[in-house]
Structure to design on (143 residues):
């Protein structure tokens, strides 16, 4: 399979040795994304704004990889203050409320900059037209 690395142009990509996103086949992995623009932190002290900004950056990376937020099947959210989970969840829901990817929210001690409150990773899978199960007798199954 072909591998395509997607760069944001951040100096840290070469220094640390990572890509903003990597597409292999129909799968796209987006690296941990924070509310930064260059060296500037967006939404300092506001977990809701930082979450929205990070997801907007994820959306741009997915577009460069040939995908969109609707292709996201999983998000991983890291927060430095678990008491802010509702603010983070509200912003996440505004982007993913209808898509409903699998998601994990974890509290961590710190992120790369002290003013960062949220970091988000995403996995997207492009539909190749597979036939999926559309009905089940399992009461926990929803279409």
């Amino acid at each position: 399979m072909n591998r395509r690395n997607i760069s944001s142009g951040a100096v840290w990509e070469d220094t640390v040795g990572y890509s903003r996103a990597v597409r292999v086949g129909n799968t796209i992995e987006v690296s941990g994304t924070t509310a930064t623009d260059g060296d500037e932190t967006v939404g300092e002290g506001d977990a809701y704004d930082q979450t929205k900004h990070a997801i907007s950056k994820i959306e741009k990376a997915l577009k460069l990889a040939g995908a969109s937020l609707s292709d996201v099947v999983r998000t991983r959210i890291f927060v430095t203050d678990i008491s802010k989970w509702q603010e983070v969840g509200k912003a996440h829901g505004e982007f993913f409320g209808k898509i409903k990817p699998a998601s994990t929210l974890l509290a961590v001690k710190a992120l790369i900059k002290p003013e960062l409150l949220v970091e988000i990773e995403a996995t997207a899978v492009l539909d190749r037209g597979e036939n999926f199960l559309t009905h089940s007798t399992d009461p926990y199954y929803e279409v």
